[in-house]
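Onboarding guide, step 5: your first structure request.
Type a short instruction followed by the sequence, for example:

Predict the 3D structure of this protein.
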Amino acid sequence: MSRTIRRRTTAGIAGVAALTLTLAACGGAGDLNGGGGGGGGDDAGGDADCSEFEEYGTFEGETVTLFTSIREVEADQLQDSFAQFEECTGITVEHNGSGEFEQQVVVQAESGNAPDLAAFPQPGLLQRMANDGHLVEAPAEVETNVDEGWTEDWKSYGTVDGTFYAAPLMSNVKSFVWYSPSDFEENGYEVPETWDELMDLTQQIADDHGSDSVKPWCAGIESGGATGWPATDWIEDMVLRTGGGDVYDQWVSHEIPFNDPQVVEAVDMAGDILKNEDYVNGGIGDSRSIATTSFNDGGLPILDGNCFLHRQASFYEAQWPEGTDVGPDGDVYAFYLPSVNADETPVLVAGEFVGAFNDNEATQAVQRFLSSDTWANTRVEIGGVISANLGVDPELASSDVLRQSIEILQDPNAVARFDGSDMMPSEVGAGSFWSGMVDWINGSDTESVLDGIENSWPN
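The system replies with structure tokens like these:
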């Protein structure tokens, strides 16, 4: 699922537990490549010590435009992350966020009215913009930052046909299960560390509490025009767990067909939970009620004791009602969705990638800043988001869930893979895959659904 869709439903995520920004020292003059970019360092930096920003140069009175899918509270916090950079460099970063980012960025580029920079939530869209000749290659300094600050997997999503275009920006971890710590303690349940332990726990909950209204799991995949995306996340997580990163990559790139036996196995693995009437849909209805239950509301029965487990991403923290205590000793918390083997950490992720439409020095300075761990730590400390940058301090995260997310991303055993539907052709990833999962939840068998999706893959 793309970041834009999430923002239509969880625009307030950044306000969940925002921290007050502790402004770092900054200072100095200079130039992107050691020369003059215009303007004096003392005037641009005012009374501040701008030594941390000398490498970016000074550009008195210049404006760089940044177009994203980020809106509302989080857009304000993104703007706040540029405060010291703007003061010390003289650049004004003009951010514009849109719920129609995917459509508008194409229109703007094709009409010759592209922004200076854009943050792409879908690597597939980034690839299209690069292949159409709209994006310019990232500066060497940006690539160096990425080589030092991210894993090769993350760099690959900003690379098209061997050319590096875009550094990662913010990130999300999708491989989480939400639960009630107090309910677990009261019933003597422990957080599972393997998939078998998770399924044993599921059966134990069904045996202990199973009724028409209380079930181990609750879920919802309704999301307006994007209905079905939460189920695609389930399948992507299962492919990672049954086939590993290599099979996942082959599936997403269509090197193996959508109905490959390995994918069938993964879908049936999800179906062991989502289509089992003994296991779902606690506090809501039977298994088919998943298709008509809003993703926003899918986990709320946990608060009423009608459900014990809900698989959803870190950003679901924003969906709990105001006043809900989210933490290891709170009303709700989340644990990592276990893998088949305890020593493996497959993790489904999403995020944005910053590409440039020109190579102006001021544009490159902003692009370089956004690829740095300085920016990543600043933005994480403001609150509500995380970054996969290895230089981020997890202690700066604004909540326990976000802190846990950063630690998962920095786990050397983690095998991170980007949301598959965002990597696939739109006819599939935002089309037949979504609708096929709705049909599957509504009773269609795995083979016929996967056959239909495979037949929809564009030639």
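Each response can be followed by summary notes, for example: The chain has two domains: 3-172+350-410, 176-312.
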